[in-house]
Specification:
This protein has 557 residues and is mainly β. Helix content is 14%, strand content 45%. It contains four helices and 46 strands. A hairpin with a 3-residue loop joins strand 10 and strand 11 (200-204).
Length: 557
């Protein structure tokens, strides 16, 4: 629980004991108690303190004068009300054990595609399983492994796809839900539905589909079809939702915003088999590599026909990168990464990070070095190895905060992105010190380098920099969920990113204009790559689906 949430909780508990808790504050208190076990501990201690205080005062003065008795009688009633409220919360939000009587479920878990849990209001947590009932007050929480889950109302009129790092709770009647943070995609039947966030309400007026995200900065909603409204909680300001537009309710003052999202009604040209979570294109543009879980598949980038299959002893292969000379690195677990000679079909080096799994790879120093970013444990952060020996090389900065790495096509410049949003530009073959540039404070979960340009994800935006002058950046606004992947076209003119809610977005980097939004499915787009010429895009989603898209002409918006 953050310091802000703790202060807010204490304020709300004080108001509750004094009998002056407004309806909006009651909803906020409910959200805090249902979403945070620490908040519930504070609540119980606070209630216990007030009850004990009342007992002490009554014991010290068993027969106080009438006015005092009336005052502490009121306090006792307030404390009793708090206790009663706590008991009701605990009873109402606890799933019935076994066959014991209890509240009827308000929904069920329809699908699970990752690490998901059901968390009761009293802090009990159990793994979520498909078909499992959801009771009033239970929160479906999905962890940060980019999986997801689907929860639907008891009458199946509402289906919510819940993405990574998201917690959502159905209302007692199933006609609404509370999204504390993260991203959901809603499919609503003909009945009205209200999705509540800390900043706003998304109100569906008819059968519709929409994606909504919330974080500390505000609430976003993208309506695919149907009608609805976005209503800001602070002042009741409302904005009618139109299909194809993205609306935003920020946490601060200012008008509600809406902009067109140029969603292309396009179908993929091809689907690549045996894909895992990553793709890469060779520097000469002739070969496409897709991770396969047990190795990598190499494809002719123009004809999209398979060339070579690399089978490794590694587990959970999910990253792939090319050296300038055509060698391929595959990253997974045990060992952390292997370097392969595709022509010979044999590994030439392996690096062992001491545990964990590779989350990012890049060749540096013209292909002589391999940079890895692993997680968790000893492999976490940036480490650099000899690409032909597997021996670790020193790094002239603390790489433990690095979460993503990329390199220029010639392998001369290595770019590392950190949790704090900083970029570190380093030439391992030169004596010059690394260049560190600040971001906007949002984690750079993915970075990419193209001709003269560096791009990094920053929440729902992409920050684009001139490689020669990296201190300044242009921000490209995304839509829907946080961005998980990024790529720069070979000529540096286009930037693509994949979002947590299944969109692939393409911008004109120079104009800062969103040109295309491709619906790549319901799952997070974990990897994007441009094919030669920049007219086609490859996407790989967290459900292991890899697709090739021919980009349509730029939308006029």
């Amino acid at each position: 629980m953050t310091a802000t949430d703790r202060a807010d909780l204490l304020r709300l508990l004080s108001a509750l004991c004094d009998g002056r808790l407004a309806a909006a504050d009651r909803a906020r208190l409910d959200a805090l108690l249902c979403g945070d076990p620490e908040a519930r501990q504070v609540y119980r201690r606070y209630v216990g303190l007030h009850v004990d205080l009342g007992r002490v005062l009554r014991a010290a003065d068993p027969a106080p004068p009438a006015p005092v008795r009336r005052r502490w009688g009121a306090a006792g009633l307030a404390a009793a009300a708090v206790v009663a409220a706590g008991v009701l919360l605990a009873v109402a939000f606890r799933p019935p054990p076994g066959d014991a009587p209890g509240p009827a479920p308000v929904g069920r878990v329809a699908e699970v595609d990752g690490a998901a849990r059901l968390v009761s209001a009293d802090g009990r947590s159990v793994p979520a399983a498909a078909g499992q009932p959801v009771f009033p007050g239970q929160t479906l929480a999905v962890g940060g492994d980019d999986g997801g889950a689907v929860v639907e109302s008891a009458d199946a009129s509402v289906r919510l796809r819940v993405y990574a790092d998201t917690a959502v709770r159905l209302s007692a009647d199933g006609g609404g839900a509370y999204l504390s943070a993260g991203t959901v995609r809603a499919e609503v039947g003909g009945t009205p539905f209200i999705l509540t966030t800390p900043h706003a309400e998304v109100r569906s007026r008819e059968a519709s589909r929409f994606t909504s995200s919330a974080d500390g900065g505000g609430t976003w909603v993208s309506l695919e079809d149907g009608r609805g409204d976005l209503v800001r909680s602070a002042d009741g300001a409302a904005l009618a939702l139109e299909p194809g537009r993205v609306a935003e309710a920020s946490a601060g003052p200012g008008p509600l915003a809406s902009r067109l999202l140029p969603v292309a009604a396009a179908a993929p040209r091809a689907a690549l088999k045996s894909a895992s979570e990553a793709v890469a294109v060779s520097p000469d543009g002739r070969t496409l590599a897709s991770a396969t879980g047990r190795g990598a598949e190499l494809w002719d980038a123009a004809a999209l026909t398979p060339r070579v299959t690399l089978r490794t002893a590694q587990r959970s292969i999910g990253r792939v990168a090319f050296a300038p000379d055509g060698r391929v690195a595959v990253g997974g677990a045990a060992p952390l990464a292997e370097v392969w000679d595709p022509a010979a079909g044999v590994p030439v080096a392996a690096v062992d990070g001491g545990g964990g799994k590779a989350r990012s790879l890049a060749f540096a120093a013209g292909g002589r070095l391999l940079a890895t970013v692993g997680w968790p444990g000893p492999a976490a952060g940036l480490r650099v190895w000899g690409a032909d020996t597997g021996r670790e090389r020193p790094v002239p900065f603390d790489g433990r905060d690095v979460v993503a790495v990329a390199a220029a096509p010639d392998g001369a410049v290595l770019v590392a992105g950190t949790r704090a949003g900083r970029l570190i530009l380093w030439d391992p073959a030169a004596d010059a010190a690394p260049v560190v540039v600040a971001g906007d404070g949002t984690a750079a979960d993915a970075v990419a380098v193209g001709r003269g340009r560096v791009a990094q994800t920053a929440g729902r935006r992409v920050l684009v920099r001139d490689l020669a002058r990296p201190d300044g950046f242009a921000a490209l606004d995304g839509a829907g969920g946080p961005l998980r992947s990024v790529a720069v076209s070979p000529d540096g003119r286009l930037v693509a990113a994949g979002s947590a809610d299944g969109l692939a977005l393409v911008w004109d980097a120079a104009a800062g204009r969103l040109r295309h939004a491709l619906r790549a499915g319901d799952h997070a787009v974990q990897s994007v790559a441009f094919l030669p010429g920049g007219r086609s895009l490859v996407t790989v989603s967290s459900n292991k689906a890899a697709r090739v898209w021919d980009l349509p002409p730029a939308a006029d918006h």
